[in-house]
Amino acid sequence: MKRFLLLTCVIICISLNMRAQNDTLRYEITKSMPVFYQKLKEQLTFPMAWGKSPIKEFSEWRNEARNKLIACMSNLPPKASEYDTRIVATEQRNGYKAHKIEFNISAWSRIPAYLLIPSGEGPFPAIVMLHDHGAHFSIGKEKVVRPFEVTPEVMEDANDWVEKCYDNQYIGDYFAQNGYVVLAIDALFWGERGRKEGVDYDSQQALASNFLQMGASWSAFINIDDVRSGEYLASLPYVDEKRIGCLGFSMGAYRSWMMSSISDVISASASVCWINTTEHLMTLTNNQNKGGSAFSMLLPDIRRYMDYPHVASIACPKPTLFFNGREDKLFPVVGVEDSYRILTDVWKSQDAEERLVTKIWDEKHFFNREMQAETLRFFDKWLK
Fold first, then answer.
1. Pairing label, strands 239-249, 268-272
2. Any residues with CB less than 8 A from the CB of 242 and at least 6 apart, and which?
3. Quick check: 202 and 282 in contact, CB under 8 A?
4. Can you list the residues of the chain whose pLDDT is less than 70?
5. Contact 305, 73 (CB under 8 A)
6. What H or E segment, with its residue span, contains residue 103?
7. What's the N-to-C CA distance of the chain in angstroms?
8. 39-383 architecture in CATH?
9. Residue 4's pLDDT is what?
């Protein structure tokens, strides 16, 4: 009986203490954002943006802005001394051949990839095909190239994803059928570059934190792997090194405009469903404030110098395409419109407006077949 009374008293004390804390405790965080987040955003003046920078000669600005971007990537892996390509498997398809390969993407990582080569005489134009995020990590490159010699579970997973996001069409195979060499790799954490213990959503934050504690960035490692995959394509004898583009949807779109801004190997880029501004992404209601997925597209310090469309502008005057959906809940349309205005002003300033395509579709976060066909026509115009 005494134990029961003692336990009851303890519970009552704890309850009263918690109630008192709830009544009196102040807070400075709401919905994972500091209550002063607007003040933080006001500090971001983006002084290296074209038009704000004191540098008035565009090529000089472009070099300085790119150097700052690369500096913010920090502690990157060294290049591989050789690619040492190995063909793992091959499948003949309608008008092209599909290879599963392995090659050294850096001095630290040897990775699998899909390489699609059209029938006929090269050299061919080529596309680095960049997969999305989707909080779906079991597959990566298989989201954009139809896999082969895989388990039934992987095949079903890929087919389901392509139906969900790509209107039931493998975008990499679509481009190979139309005369492009296509390379697709797994971003670090996806597919065959995943977590030994099994990938889950929350482990993204642990991975990103561990990179940061070692003076590096998970996002930057994804970006530099993309750049080096383009350099790998340029080294292939059947690829025209002057006609290489990159294309992606969602996170793949972010990877695409980043890749074009960093690398002169890329001659044209297309980015579908990923462009916006910090002003409209960093709100109490936007998905970006949840963390998690955002870490794969986050470079420390870059916002002190440039916003997303300013970074994408480093690619000017290359042919560049941006598509977004009016009903896309991840990327507010007002932020898309602001980004398009910034991008258009930059390309106009270099008399290159005809090289920039921006379009808002009556679509959600989805890469439908009509959008894919228009993207193909864009690349045909500039790479063929």
1. parallel
2. 267
3. no
4. 1-24
5. no
6. strand 96-104
7. 88
8. 3-Layer(aba) Sandwich (3.40)
9. 47
Please give the model's pTM, rounded to 2 decimal places.
0.92
For residue 150, give both structure tokens: 């895989």
Judged on CB neighbours under 10 Å (0-12, 13-18, 19+), 120 is: exposed
Domain limits, the chain: 39-383
Query: Considering the chain, what percentage of its residues have pLDDT values greater than 70?
Result: 94
The whole-angstrom separation of Cα 306 and Cα 310 is 5
The 10s digit of each residue's pLDDT in 210-240 is: 999 999 999 999 999 999 999 999 999 999 9
Q: For residues 52 and 228, what is the distance between their CA atoms, to the nearest angstrom?
A: 31
Lookup result for tokens 């007002």: 334
- Token pair of 238, please? 């059947």
CA distance 327 to 312: 23
The Cα 231–Cα 247 span in angstroms is 15
What number of residues does the chain have?
Answer: 384
Determine the pLDDT at residue 24: 52
